[in-house]
Design goal:
heterodimer; A: mainly alpha; MetI-like fold; two-stranded antiparallel ribbon; 13 helices; 2 strands; globular; B: alpha/beta; Rossmann fold; 8-stranded mixed beta sheet
């Protein structure tokens, strides 16, 4: 177990180094940060002086070395725009994004699982067929159209839920500002998390259905029937547990997609999270913030996948044994 | 029957007495397994029972709903499957899979159910059953798993065990052990057994009566020893001749020419006629009826003709 985690940590470092290299190498392709920082009237000499101060005139490797030295100590550079450490700026926005992602994942699990199971148990039922058609459509409609449609229907036409911002937040245990614990915050969370969930839902419904149908054909399910067990026990204990194994793995990989979708969702709903911040930073050519974001996201990705592997071990006894042995 | 549907079993009929052990033999595709599975209505979809009747003590099984069937399955009629590696659920512990069977049929506490399960594991000669109880299937060998499955089948003291090739997937040394175990358990508890097998060696050790199947029909039925000593139907003769023991060492093994027809290409008349060395014009056109040959019941025109001839000569002598 410990060795497994250590190995993961090593992998994570490797991944981060590659991500930081990539994000660093695209920095000067984004545009000139100095142009965004100073007024039109500043002379070229003064601009050049500022460039020197910021270290922008140094070679790529020197710049990267400087960055890497800081990064190891937790310093991912200083945002040009906020004039604050980039990591702090991002971490401040992290709770908003995590809450959004968490709610979306919760909605996906709560809706996709029963839908997938239903479609697998009764494939000929009219509802199952409808579900399959809807999920095909869902797979092919991009998230920004879904989101804009949701805003149009629920905010503009029906006026049920607010269409932008995070609303009221309350401090939780002095750790972070949360929108989960008051009505206003939750109502603001509704549309963004729902759009995000809808974007991820179809693939999970289809995956659960396909896996479950496969499992239901297996000999151990037939043996379970021959023991006279109830249908509910067979579907939800014998079959579902086996169905979830590949679903968990795909879930981990989808974490990357989720992050990509948060950028779009947050931009549409003006959600003050990391994704929204990232879009702003790109247009402000705030390169330290852009690299810091990419590194933080890489870290989240590695952590999620480690977590997913641990959960997988809980579901699959053969893997649990292996991790003891390693 | 609708178009594009195929019948896997036709005119199959037999009775099983309390505590009796019968065997169903035949080549792959003869319909043996389908026969076993249809008894508790567990045929894989889209298969279904079109017509006919299956009765357990005068209770009709074919018309039962799922709930009624669940009460029969596992409690009155239990099944052992072919491959023990595939039969147990990989993500549930052995104990879990045993206890759930007991608890879904009776209202007893988890603790009592656990005690029954451990006792049954002990009965099938599994070492340290308390330890096995908490293990997962992948931690056990194939032979061990088949023992666990036999224990699972015994949990509720069923009246009938249907064993579908219970030793085929095991290696030879373990085959004998499992077979012996199955036999002694059926004997000691007075459990009736339907053994589905293609191995006449296995069948001769276990079953009192044997049914030989070919292409969805029963072709011969009688006491196992009689059938093995004096097979009547040309197909049964062919099967016995194909046993390696029937060939002088060093010679080519005997075989029945040709292969079992698929369901879609079942020949007219007696389905065996294209492969039968004694086939006549009549065999190609008509379906033979069962007659008692003095040894076994058999559906074959050749036997019928022979019996008629004997009867005629008897008359002449008289």
């Amino acid at each position: 177990m410990l060795i497994f985690l250590l190995r993961r940590l090593l992998q994570a470092c490797f991944v981060m180094i590659i991500i930081s290299l990539i994000s660093f190498s695209i920095q000067d392709k984004l545009g000139d940060p100095v142009q965004q920082m100073v007024a039109m009237t500043v002379s070229p000499e003064e601009r050049n002086q500022l460039r020197n101060e910021l270290g922008l005139n140094d070679g790529f490797l020197i710049q990267y070395w400087r960055f890497a030295k800081g990064a190891i100590q937790g310093d991912l550079g200083t945002s040009y725009y906020y004039k604050e450490p980039a990591l702090d700026v991002i971490l401040e926005k992290l709770p908003a994004t995590l809450e959004l992602a968490f709610c979306a994942i919760l909605i996906v699990i709560l809706i996709a699982t029963p839908c997938g199971v239903m479609a697998a148990i009764k494939p000929k039922h009219i509802l199952s067929r409808l579900l399959m058609v809807t999920s095909s459509i869902g797979l092919s409609v991009p998230i920004f159209i879904v989101a804009i449609l949701m805003v149009y229907i629920f905010s503009i036409e029906l006026n049920i839920a607010p269409s932008f911002g995070r609303g009221q937040t309350t401090e939780v245990l002095g750790l972070w500002e949360s929108g989960l614990f008051n009505k206003n915050g939750l109502s603001h969370l509704l549309l963004p998390s729902l759009s995000l969930a809808i974007a991820l839902m179809p693939i999970f419904v289809r995956l659960i259905r396909a896996e479950m149908m496969d499992v239901l054909q297996s000999e151990y399910i037939r043996f379970a029937w021959s023991k006279g067990l109830s249908a509910r026990r067979i579907y939800f204990i014998h079959a579902l547990k086996n169905t979830m194994l590949p679903v968990i793995t795909v879930g981990g990989i989808q974490a990357g997609t989720l992050v990509a979708y948060t950028i779009l969702t947050e931009t549409i709903f003006q959600w003050p999270g990391m994704g929204f911040l990232f879009m702003d930073s790109v247009s402000r050519v705030d390169t330290p913030l852009v690299s810091a974001y990419l590194i933080v996201v890489g870290g989240i990705f590695v952590i999620t996948n480690t977590f997913v592997d641990l959960i997988y071990g809980l579901f699959n006894p053969t893997v649990r044994l292996a991790s003891h042995g390693l | 029957m609708k178009k594009r549907e195929l019948a896997a079993l036709i005119d199959v009929s037999f009775t099983l007495n309390r505590g009796e052990r019968i065997a169903i033999v035949g080549e792959s595709g003869a319909g043996k397994s389908i026969l076993g599975f249809s008894i508790v209505n567990l045929i894989s979809k889209p298969g279904y029972i079109e017509s006919g009747s299956i009765k357990l003590e005068n209770k009709e099984l074919t018309t039962m709903n799922l709930r009624q069937l669940q009460e029969i399955r596992g409690k009155r009629i239990a099944m052992i499957f072919q491959d023990p590696m595939m039969t147990l659920n990989p993500v549930l512990t052995i104990g879990n899979q045993l206890v759930e069977t007991i608890r879904s049929h009776t209202n007893i506490s988890y603790k009592d159910a656990r005690n029954i399960a451990i006792e049954k594991l002990h009965n099938v000669q599994i070492s340290s059953p308390e330890k096995r109880f908490d293990q997962y299937p992948h931690e056990l060998s194939g032979g061990m798993r088949q023992r666990v499955i036999i224990a699972a089948v015994l949990l509720l003291n069923p009246d009938i065990i249907i064993a579908d090739e219970p030793t085929t997937a095991l290696d030879v040394t373990i085959q004998a052990e499992i077979l012996q175990l199955l036999l002694s358990i059926c004997r000691d508890n007075g459990v009736a057994l339907i053994l589905i097998s293609h191995d006449l060696g296995v069948v001769s050790k276990v079953a009192e009566r044997t049914l030989v199947m070919y292409a969805g029909h029963i072709v011969e039925e009688g006491p196992t020893l009689e059938i093995i000593n004096d097979p009547q139907h040309p197909y049964t003769q062919g099967l016995l001749n194909a046993l390696p023991q029937m060939t002088i060492p060093g010679q080519r093994l005997n075989q029945i020419q040709g292969s079992m027809p698929s369901l879609a290409e079942r020949p007219t008349g007696c389905a065996f006629h294209p492969r039968c060395p004694y086939a006549t014009q009549k065999c190609k056109q008509e379906q033979p009826q069962f007659i008692y040959s003095g040894v076994s019941s058999v559906a074959c025109f050749m036997i019928e003709d022979m019996l008629n001839e004997f009867a005629d000569t008897d008359k002449e002598v008289l």
